[in-house]
Write a structure and sequence with these properties.
Length: about 475
């Protein structure tokens, strides 16, 4: 057993944890980052955001090559899928980026400690290694950045081969003929769209009456129609009553959310994507006196400090959307606070993106939220089909929607469905961060021809009207 003293110890090397460690080191602190897995980067980099985006992009190229290029004068012979090569590309991307994080740790002199950490005091951690030995880490401050894990489905055992979580869905050995996705959130729809493009018959089962719960309703409805045209089948207000193995197939029993209308789906693979929960098991939080809320999340104040002085928490383990970029920004803010600076994250300006094709992106309030809050607002919209660049690219599905305060014109929310929406939303985030009005966006010069012009035209729709519609 060895013992070392640090200014900061970060538990978890995901997007929040490794960013917090690097930022703290930049500010002159002596930092250690403890990670139980063999590679750095956490769920996002190893089995989440990054590998899924690699598969999304590659599957989009495959679909484009099969049926999207002829109108552009490009004729191909037979287009074949090499799933092994696709998976190799995905794995290469992950390996390169995880090694990149390790390089950044060395560059910034962050001590990387491999093992499972447990709080044994307000300023002390015990790190256990797989070899059986342990190390005591003393730190003036501790940041909990352990992320989240897939929510289990009661009564259903995940084997990551035929009944899979998002982890297994990223590494299937063959394209399933029939795939059921349980849950119509971001993860389920992204991965479902990957396998649909590669040839699977995809059925999405969702307990609620809408896909992507929490999204602006108009955008959600448009999104479902687009995915439906791509071949995805939706069974809303429907619950899974059970899953049985039947030789080489699975029998999925479904029924109406209120009971009745029973049906059995015979499929090859089931993807369970009903959400994620904070990963806090085994951290010793009870012994350390760290308080959790009713949903099992670590409770923090505006400075990301828990009820125990010197212990902080960021990312998926605390309240808020479980997004990698939220965790990153909170990691920076927590590190700066610990270093004696003033820092914060604007929770009203955190974008969310569904990386399907077309993409869906949003920031700020939805119409439904504004109505519940009793806020008077106006709506400005502009369709992709009236955008010159979108037409040149044959990417005509979708629209930009801006919500602004009726009295002040301040931007309250922006919602986009369309090609490259995840890039377009950055302009809206910046506008909201600086308290811009819709007129500010409308009077800002946008390059022509660009998809971004749809944002300007949507802003113009809140004034005298768009120019090109």
């Amino acid at each position: 057993m060895s013992e070392t003293q640090y200014d900061l110890a970060v538990i978890g090397a995901g997007p929040g944890g490794y960013v917090a460690a690097i930022r703290a080191a930049q500010l002159g602190l002596k930092v250690a980052c403890i990670e139980k897995d063999a590679t750095l980067g956490g769920t996002c980099l190893n089995i989440g955001c990054i590998p899924s985006k690699a598969l999304l992009h590659t599957s989009e190229q495959y679909a484009e090559a099969k049926q999207g290029l002829e109108k552009h004068g490009i004729t191909l012979g037979e287009v074949a899928l090499d799933l092994d090569a696709m998976m190799d590309h995905k794995d290469e991307v992950v390996e390169t980026l995880t090694k990149g994080v390790a390089h950044l740790f060395k560059k910034n002199k962050v001590a990387h400690i491999r093992g499972t950490a447990r709080l044994t005091g307000r300023r002390e951690l015990m790190v256990s290694r797989s070899e059986g030995d342990s190390e005591t880490v003393n730190a003036s401050n501790i940041v909990i950045a352990t992320g989240s894990e897939s929510m289990p489905f009661p009564g259903v055992a995940i084997d990551e081969e035929r009944i899979v979580s998002s982890t297994g869905a990223l590494d299937l050995k063959a394209v399933p003929e029939r795939l059921v996705v349980v849950g119509a959130g971001y993860i389920g729809l992204e991965l479902g769209s990957v396998w649909r493009r590669l040839g699977s018959q995809v059925t999405v089962v969702e307990l609620l009456d809408t896909i992507t719960p929490g999204m602006d309703r108009e955008v959600s409805q448009a999104f479902q129609k687009v995915l439906g045209r791509q071949g995805m089948v939706f069974k809303l207000e429907t619950k899974v009553a059970g899953i049985e193995r039947n030789g080489e197939t699975l029998r999925v029993a479904i029924e109406s959310a209120g009971g009745g209308n029973e049906e059995t789906l015979e499929v090859d693979v089931v993807l369970v994507a009903i959400g994620r929960r904070p990963y806090v098991a085994g951290l010793g939080l009870d012994e350390a006196g760290v308080a959790l809320d009713e949903k099992g999340r670590v409770m923090v104040d505006a400075r990301y400090q828990t009820n125990v002085e010197g212990i902080y928490a960021i990312g998926d383990v605390i309240e808020g959307p479980m997004l990698a970029h939220k965790a990153e920004d909170e990691g920076v803010a927590a590190a700066e606070v610990i270093a004696g600076q003033k820092s914060h994250v604007n929770d009203d300006a955190i974008p969310g993106v569904v990386y399907t094709e077309p993409e869906v992106a949003a920031v700020g309030k939805t119409e439904e939220q504004l109505k519940v809050a009793g806020i008077d607002y106006r709506v400005g919209k502009f369709p992709y089909l009236a955008n010159a660049r979108a037409r040149a690219m044959s990417k005509l599905e979708g629209f930009v929607k801006i919500l602004s305060a009726a009295e002040t014109d301040r931007v309250l929310g922006v919602h986009i469905i369309g090609h490259d929406a995840g890039t377009l939303i950055a302009e809206a985030v910046l506008a909201m961060e600086f308290g811009a009005s819709a007129e500010d966006i409308a009077r800002t010069c946008h390059a022509h021809p660009s998809l971004n012009e749809a944002m300007k035209e949507a802003a113009l729709a809140l004034g005298d009207g768009p120019i090109h519609l």
